[in-house]
Amino acid sequence: MESSKLCSLDRRRFLETLGVGLLGMATLATVTPEVSFANSSDRNAGRIAILYDASKCVGCHYCESGCRNANGLSDEVQLDLAALPASMTRFMRYNGIALPKVEPVTTDDRTASRWLRVIDSGAEISGITEYLRRSCAHCGLCAKVCPSRALRQRDDGTVTVEPDLCIGCGYCYQACPFDIPRYAETGRDAAMRKCTLCVERIDSGAEMPACVRVCPTGALSFGSYADAVVEGRARTAELQKQGFDTACLYGAEELGGTSLIYVLPQSYEVYGLPDLPS
Amino acid sequence: MEEIALQTHWGWQIAMYLFLGGLAAGTLFAAVLIDLKCGESMRRTVRFAVCVATACLIVGTLMLVTEVRMPLRAMMLWRSFTNVGSWMVFGAWLLFATIMVSGVYALANIGAVTSHLPWLVKGRRPLGYVLLVASVCIAAYTGILLSALVAHPLWNTPLLPVLFTVSAADTGVALIASHLAWRRADDEVAGSVSRWLELATLVLVVAEAVALVALLATVSSFSEIGALSVSLLTHGGLAPWFWLLFVGCGLVIPLAASAWSHYQDHKAKAAPKAARADDVKTMARSRRRVVLMSGGVACLVGGCALRFLVLLAGLPVWA
After folding, report:
1. Is there a contact between A175 and B150 (Cβ–Cβ < 8 Å)?
2. Which of A19, A114, A139, B90 counts the highest number of beta carbons within 10 A?
3. Mean pLDDT, residues A221-238 taken together
């Protein structure tokens, strides 16, 4: 008997049902996940941050060396002595630190054991190269999607990595708007690795991340997110007053605020940084 | 156009995972509806569809496991899928639960099993309702997994789950329609179901085309990288595949096959009784069978191509 019911269902009613079903599915899909960056002031209340002033960066790669030493990373870093201020070069010469000049780093060749890179961004002002720091901004998007909680965002905004929990699904890589996650290729440690803002060192009493500590020109500073934003805005205004009209602060508003805030003498697009929602 | 690096971090396994998840969801949804409406007269088709859907879910999940770098660790669901805020966790548990339920539902459709476990027959209806909800969730999830990623403008739109859901329904309907045509099911109920499925294909293909146009238009107008992704599909390196496999096989052929078959039905009804000689009917039927099967297979090829193309063209904002 049921079969005759089936046959008797007329076309109009069938189409109506299908239409309602499709509409329902569409409605269901439209209430799906938009990442919300609301309440960013609460979110950033306890956040710590690095302020990177690109106008003071000389591209010496000393921060990379500090990162490698502090975190026991294996990839070699070569310092560019010619990029250092003369006084610093002099200090190194008389203290047995003699390293060759390297070719400019134009490709962002970060790996699972090289978490930080300062690259020639390709932007220039009056023929002089603009440098750009590439490392994790601790925006937290990866921690939101990481299925195994190998990535977690602490109350101070820092995203830490627990390699033993990582399953290597690559969801964090796809979620990251800065191309940060890198995976060790083989072995038990084939997990995702990235900058952790030296939180272990900070938790055990260090005043600042290793990269900030070794920066010879003051391009890097470390403190609360709020202080970094105030300081960054003041510096940006100063640069604009000097005639760099497109100078901007990047990372303070983007994605609700990150822990790596850039002072850039030119527009962020010139440096190849992505346009992100605030 | 300058050389653009495609998104290859997630490879073919994830594309297959999304396709098989969608195909299973669409097939389960249509099969349960047919079971609820037709009961015993369509048991064979329902059994086939549910078994295929369960197999697709299992193979799809294995695809995800083989894509990850540490598959053994990933297989410990209770340890590795714990972040309730992650859509991948929602999907992993949803797939796991659905495999269980649809496995039981498949058993409840096998006579040799139900003769030993007659209580399974009573469980069919409630299990069917659970599967209806689960299949809609899986179909939408395959799109949501990608649309939750802010870093990929082509993916980060609510229209992607809509497109994937409609495509899932489309491929599921195509699979069952092809099966009916394959086994020459031409009794009264099977014929009626077959005509329904043709009609559903017509509506779903049009809905899919509308969702696709809306997605491409919004994505390309909202961001530069989004526009680049869309141009890759429409006139860039992926264009031949997009037009041939997705638009051609996935939309045009199924639409034409269903429309033609529908027209034949209409013509047969309108024809005078004298013209409905048995040999003419048989010829028309066999031609119709070939057309419907071709439409169904083309639809499956198109659905699979859609997942591959969307994955490959999903350029990140830092590209």
Report:
1. yes
2. A139
3. 95
Using DSSP, state whether A44 is helix, strand or coil: coil
A134 closest CA partner among A189, A57, A206 = A57
β-pairing, A260-264 vs A48-53, is parallel
B-chain residues near A176 (CB < 8 A): 151
What are A31-49's pLDDT values in tens digits? Answer: 544 455 555 567 788 899 9
The owner of tokens 């972040």 is B83
A274 CB within 8 Å of a chain B CB = yes
Rounded Cα distance between B189 and B152, Å, is: 46
Does residue A16 belong to the interface with chain B, where contact is any CB pair within 8 Å? no
Q: Which long-range contacts (CB under 8 A, 24 or more apart) does B288-292 make?
A: B288/B181, B288/B261, B288/B264, B289/B181, B289/B182, B289/B184, B291/B257, B291/B260, B291/B261, B292/B177, B292/B178, B292/B180, B292/B181, B292/B194, B292/B198, B292/B257, B292/B261
Beta bridge partners of A153: A159
Query: Is residue A3 pLDDT above 50, yes or no?
Result: no
pTM: 0.87
Is A179 close to B318, i.e. CB distance below 8 A? yes
Residue by residue, DSSP assigns A5-36 as HHHHS-HHHHHHHHHHHHHHHHHHHHTS-PPP
Residues with Cβ within 8 Å of B280's Cβ and at least 6 positions away in sequence, in order, are none
Other Cβ atoms closer than 10 A to B200? 24
A191 Cβ under 8 Å from any chain B Cβ: yes
Report the gap between the CA of A130 and the closest CA in chain B (Å): 18
Which of A9, A22, A34 to substitute to test the interface with B, most B CBs within 10 Å? A22
Contact A104, A124 (CB under 8 A): no
pLDDT of residue A1: 40
Backbone phi and psi for residue A208, each to the nearest 5 degrees, phi listed first: -160, 165
- Measured between CB atoms, which of B37, B86, B162 is closest to A25? B162
